[in-house]
Amino acid sequence: MQFLRSSRMVSIGEFKDSAVLFHGPDNKQLAQNIIQSAKTLANEIGEPDSELIKLGEITWGKFEDGMPNLFIHNVESIRGRDVVFLVSFLNPNEFLSQFSVLYSLPRYLVRSLIIILPYFPTGTMERVEEEGQIATAYSFAQLLCATPVGIGGPARLIIYDIHALQNRFYFNDSVIPLLVSAVPLFLEALKKNHSHEKVVIAFPDDGAWKRFGKMFKDYQVIICLKVRDGDKRVVTVKEGAEHVKGAHVFIVDDLVKTGGTLRECRDKLTELGATNVSAYVTHPVFPQESWKKFVAETSPKCFTQFYTTDSVPDIAEAIRGKKPFQVMSLAHSIVENIFKY
Predict the structure, then answer these.
(1) What global pTM score does this model have?
(2) 248-256 and 276-284 as β-strands: parallel, antiparallel, unpaired?
(3) φ and ψ at 25, to 5 degrees?
(4) Tell me: the pLDDT tens digits for 186-237?
(5) Which residues pair with 289 in a beta bridge?
(6) In this structure, what is the dihedral angle of CA atoms 157, 162, 168, 173, given to the nearest 10 degrees?
(7) pLDDT digits 0-9 by tens, 278-333
(8) Which residue, 313, 340, 307, 326, is CA-closest to 86?
(9) Which of left, alpha, beta for 3 (phi over 0: left; psi -120 to 50: alpha)?
(10) Contact 85, 115 (CB under 8 A)
């Protein structure tokens, strides 16, 4: 059984029965969106009565001392089935609970296990620059590698827009990391909403350009750079300054935290004559509610639009419906990747 979506052929013939989807305590809404997307897919392939993915249930309780009290309902039904576990490790209070479930699922003789990790939370701490620093990206990868190998082989781990591609080498053969991107969702939004404009893509640094530049072959590209000016570091345009004037420029990166670099890039691009400046990031991390600096009501000249995804569930809900934010769900992409890989 196959279907075609976004010009990619995806096979689902190897799945004997409905895949069972479990989700961590912070990913309820995204899990429901995935189920709905699977129903849409069933209609698209002409099998509206097929249940391609069904939702499993876990009780995420706590004992009196705060330790996890967990229960997988109807656990006998997952033997010999393909299981998907949607996790979020943004909340340290839920680490132990989710890893406990993750380590348990293969022991129930599931046919295959796919782990969906929309955001790899320690990805920015992937290298050591001086003695004493700890690359927590490696530590986190080792925790995921402790997932037991099941009867169908190692678990597949699907991660969206990891900060540094070399992080894949932190994983051993106990899991198979599959690094995918949410940028195709943004490209669809550009074609749908901005085809009448002169759209130019800007990257805030060489790292973003190396990660995403090949995905924007149909667009003119600007590469920004931070350089030292006395005691300060200021943003300048390294390449593509001639494309700025009169354009709607979209700054593209994998994640945003406080957003200082994005705002500095916006100011520079506006100074060079951009008609509008917008942004796209896959992961809206925004610690300490720093997203409020971008809300149109308080910062009307900040960004024309700000596209992002629901890879960080609580932030996605906080910014949904607030201009200039446009939250795109990863659900369709996740369904694609479940059956593609």
Answers:
(1) 0.90
(2) parallel
(3) -65, -20
(4) 999 999 999 999 999 999 999 999 999 999 999 999 999 988 666 677 889 9
(5) none
(6) -10
(7) 999 999 999 999 999 999 767 667 899 999 999 999 999 999 999 999 999 999 99
(8) 313
(9) beta
(10) yes
Q: What is the pLDDT of residue 217?
A: 94
Token couple for 253: 């990166």
Phi first, then psi, for residue 147 (nearest 5°) are -60, 125
Is the torsion defined by CA of 76, 99, 126, 213 positive or negative? Answer: positive
Cite the beta strand spans of the chain per DSSP E: 2-5, 8-11, 19-23, 53-55, 58-62, 68-72, 82-86, 112-117, 155-160, 175-180, 199-203, 220-229, 232-239, 248-256, 276-284, 306-309, 325-328
Q: At residue 3, does pLDDT exceed 60? A: no
d(CA 32, CA 291): 25
CA torsion through residues 205, 207, 210, 216, sign: negative
Q: Is 290 helix (H, G, I), strand (E, B) or coil?
A: helix
Residue ranges of domains in the chain, CATH in brackets: 2-181+331-340 (3.40.50.2020), 183-310 (3.40.50.2020)
Number of Cβ within 10 Å of residue 156's Cβ equals 19
Q: Which residues does residue 283 pair with via DSSP β-bridges, in sequence order?
A: 255
Beta bridge partners, 284, equal 256
Contact by Cβ (8 Å): 17, 83: no
